[in-house]
């Protein structure tokens, strides 16, 4: 979704950035009322490590321990106008779907499909057709519809008693921060950029104030709201500060948010899904209209993500009465090191 593949350019001259939100909104539910029933092994979650929207689903899947029942296909960090591709896999084909391009799964669903080919996407393995690419609903359904298959000790990421407030917080995080960085980066005029920049940092100031006295966005434990904010913060200094001109401050210069981001990053299920080299390669190569040279920056040094954050003093615990997820599933490990520039140590 980061950056769907519906066209060659991302900036509309003279205009504010408008995200295409026309998704396939089918849902996979416990009762299968909409035609898609939760079943172990039936679906494949297709993601890209680079994409913040797909990163949400990789985190939630891992926190809930759904790896044994929901397989994951991983696209490479770059794509062309047609589609995300499985160029990281042997022979350049997804080993389960036997596709070279994610586009093929969309065309299997609708031979005339003409919208963006986006990640994350849930694909029905028997038919090899996309079920949904509605990124916001996918993670909520993993929390609420797949409960039969959650691991012992899995966190409740969408607590019923917090949902009204959570929905408001997540909506503001989405419009002002998750999408706000894109409004800055893809602004087609100075006026559009200035407006987007102001909105973004107004929201970051609000978040700093909210998190000054509470460990997580909704209180003492991690929820879906933290997942959604984290995937943008993880990319802020590596990409958004420079590439998208979100440059009032770096994340490392916002004391509360930087400590919060490190706290979450160091929690199992979060930092172990972040691949800084792939993130940088995606943005700086794919967005050729705002980085025509396709030169990828060496920095920043990402070792500082592993430094002490001190947020334990606020109390709380990431999983409440639950437990952290176990080791990363075989074959899904991040091979990039956290060294100067986040350069992979392979």
TrEMBL record:
It comes from the Bacteria. The active site is at residues 51, 182. GO terms for cellular component: cytoplasm. The keyword Transferase applies. It holds the Pfam family GST_C_2. This is Putative glutathione S-transferase. Residues 148-286 form the GST C-terminal domain. The record marks 240, 283 as: Lowers pKa of active site Cys. Keywords: Transferase. Glutathione binds at residue 84. GO terms for molecular function: glutathione transferase activity. The lineage of its organism: Bacteria, Bacillati, Actinomycetota, Actinomycetes, Geodermatophilales. PROSITE patterns: GST_CTER. Residues 311-346 are annotated as: Disordered. SUPFAM superfamilies: GST C-terminal domain-like (SSF47616).
